[in-house]
Amino acid sequence: MVIEMNPRVSRSSALASKATGFPIAKMAAKLSVGYSLDQIPNDITKKTPASFEPSIDYVVTKIPRFAFEKFPGSLPTLTTQMKSVGESMALGRTFQESFQKAVRSLECGYSGWGCAQVAELDWDLEHLKYNLRVPNPDRIHAIYAAMKKGMKVDEIHELSFVDKWFLTQLKELVDVEQYLMAKSLSHLTKDDFIEVKKRGYSDKQIAFATKSTEKEVRSQRISFGVTPSYKRVDTCAAEFEANTPYMYSSYDAECESAPTKRKKVLILGGGPNRIGQGIEFDYCCCHASFSLQSAGYETIMMNSNPETVSTDYDTSDRLYFEPLTVEDVLNVIDLERPDGIIVQFGGQTPLKLALPIQQYLDKHKPLSASGSGHVRIWGTSPDSIDAAEDRERFNAIIKELNIEQPKGGIAKSDADALAIAADIGYPVVVRPSYVLGGRGMEIVYNDDKLVMYLKNAVAVDPECPVLIDKYLSDAVEIDVDALADSHGNVVIGGVMEHIEQAGVHSGDSACILPTQTISSSCLTTIHLWTTKLAKSLNVCGLMNCQYAITMSGEVFLLEANPRASRTVPFVSKAIGHPLAKYAALVMSGKSLNEIGFTKEVIPAHVAVKEAVLPFDKFPGCDVLLGPEMRSTGEVMGIDFLVAIAFAKAQIAAGQKLPLSGNVFLSLNDFTKSHLERLAKAFLGLGFRIVSTSGTAHFLELKGITVDRVLKMHEGRPHAGDMLANGQIQLMVITSSGDSADQIDGRQLRRMALAYKIPIITTVSGALATADAIEKLKSCKVEVMALQDFFNVEQQKDYSKNLQSASSSL
Questions:
Q1: Where is the MGS-like domain (predicted)?
Q2: What single string gives the DSSP state of each residue in 344-399?
């Protein structure tokens, strides 16, 4: 039965290409210009043509990664609409091995399938059965819990409709786990280790089952000589020799890796895409590989994400498609013995591995295969990375450098949290320590909300403290990407001004480069503090800092991260300099002077980054922006006029800006002071203002004409009816957060999303939109190639044309 056929590449084309080593899109491109399959050589074997259908002698497992926790109100139920934000892929000689590796590649807190205290084990039988019946992201762990509780394969099949073959394979893994739990580590034989590892069990799982530690398991395993062998993906099931070193691990006899003795560097990727850690980091990994190849190094990429360019077999000299865990990375280090290891470019995933890798290198001091010294981590040291992550250590550094931070504290109990909040005053920003993407971050306005947050969002204890900072209302947030070398030189890559006010996560906020409203004195302070921080932390490579500037012009440091940030690709494209390439060369020992990057580049054009948000995929969740990141991608608009660049970014992000019609305005008490200015901006563009009673009353007192409309609960026709009837073209809503807003406001915002009406939830975003609409009505939008923006003569000609066009209006 054919369900669907699409004559194009699909999202599974990348997966199939990585799974087989047969690059579908590359072959399709050649076919489109006239080649036939028998004329295109196979890159991997160099002997067979593309008409030779790939065959494989291994098993590939892909598992999607979800982010329902980012969208409260949306049920974690899987349907015909795609909701995953990323995926992991793993290869193994058997299904069990490949499946276990894929589970741990997801980086969701599991070291494999089973051998863990999963939450589902605490559920009662009816809850468990419900989660077997209803497809959800964690159903595979519900199957594990059901088997542990004695449920038979047939019963699980009847509830879940998962094929019995897969269930039987999983049941075997549960049986192996029972065997392991009946043994101590010292009683495991070499044959036991081989059989268990062939089924994909990690050292961490074995440690859990045998009540030992991961280090003890690793030591015992290596003492038996049980180490992984690496097989090559060859597209032909070993019928022909593979020339391309694209490898996966197994515990199956002969190792095909054949590592070289060249000078080489291991680059750790970012794992599966997720909110807060996506292809921005993969961009950095790829650029690092390209630059170091040009510098004469053999580059080795290690990653588990089939969606990315870094896992193309020809991006690096060698590719290991492996989970990014301590065990798997150390296995590759032992085999390859690279001169350097780069952990800065893959986001939080390799950063979490940096300390254990450094401890291993300090203890064992492995020599590099090239013979030019010991294997070491390149760039900023893991200790400096930890100093920036650890709040107490970082605060001490900031105090010594005389850098201002918002008042705050570290709470190790509920009582601590309430005392800190009382001392610094509400509103406060609360978040767990060591998070990426603003996970669990919230703005809290009173004691009751803080208690509720501590009860529902995080468990506070001395091991997992909560950070509490003063929320800077109406502050402008600034992002800075800087580059530092090992000779003490620091250069600012770019300073970005956020359009949304501080309190909206930087990943969800639109931002502008170069800055537009920041005073020279504030910029001087930001440059000085960034340079001091980079030198104090001994940064070698990239560093990202975030600042807030209050209405009175005070500058505060919010955070500093000595690693590549998600803004590096945006800044690189905006200024015309590949920062990730420069950073990789700096880590290899070159100075910024040698590279030729010695001062900040201020472009003549303006670049605007805008976030792409997936709210339409998650019915039930609100569309408000806040301190927790929710965007799944971003776009860039570029022009010589700020408003046009912003308009291009909005259009690229899917926001169809209206040039006329009705604007619905509803602002909360915190943002009411901006209401008059906002209303006059849209009235000046020819729009009519529509508001409910509170906002309408405020505007009428200012002498502004408003069309009143009922709230949703006040009867009909209400604001929702106007949306449905096409009588509202743009909505600006800032949430009050009260119970009425949670019902009326949320419903109205969801309706705007359903009817594809542009909705703006911040004042600054609304003002920028008004400016963009004004320029769209008065100027012609020009299309230019990115390279042309860096052509000085063309910039001058274009500026003259703009001036003459403006004078004729």
A1: 655-796
A2: SSSTHHHHHHHHHHHHHHHHH-PBPTTSSSB-EE-SS-HHHHHHHHSHHHHHHHHH
Report the C-alpha gap between 636 and 579 in whole angstroms: 17
Cβ of 470: how many Cβ atoms within 10 Å?
20
- Report yes or no: 467 and 404 within 8 Å, Cβ to Cβ: no
- Give the strand pairing for 318-321 and 246-250: parallel
Q: How far apart are CA 351 and CA 563, in angstroms?
A: 9
Q: How many CB atoms lie within 10 A of CB 466?
A: 26
Q: What is the pTM of this model?
A: 0.91
Residue 238 has pLDDT above 90, yes or no: no
* Distance, CA of 298 to CA of 688 (rounded, Å): 63
pLDDT digits (tens, 9 = 90+) for 396-452: 999 999 999 988 888 888 888 889 988 898 888 888 765 554 566 788 888 888 888
In whole numbers, what is the pLDDT of the chain averaged over residues? 90
**Beta carbons of 438 and 431 less than 8 angstroms apart:** yes
Residue the block writes with tokens 């010594």? 400
Helix (H, G, I), strand (E, B) or coil at 795: helix
- Give the amino acid at 620: G
Q: Say whether pLDDT at 807 is over 50.
A: no
DSSP 577-636: --HHHHHHHHHTT--HHHHT--S----SSEEEEEEE--GGGSTTS-----SS----EEEE
Other CB atoms within a 10 A radius of the CB of residue 594 amount to 12
pLDDT at residue 800, as a whole number: 52
Position of tokens 């609304």?
A: 766
Angle between helices 579-587 and 568-575 (to 10 degrees): 110
Q: Which of 215, 252, 248 is nearest to 332 (CA)?
A: 248
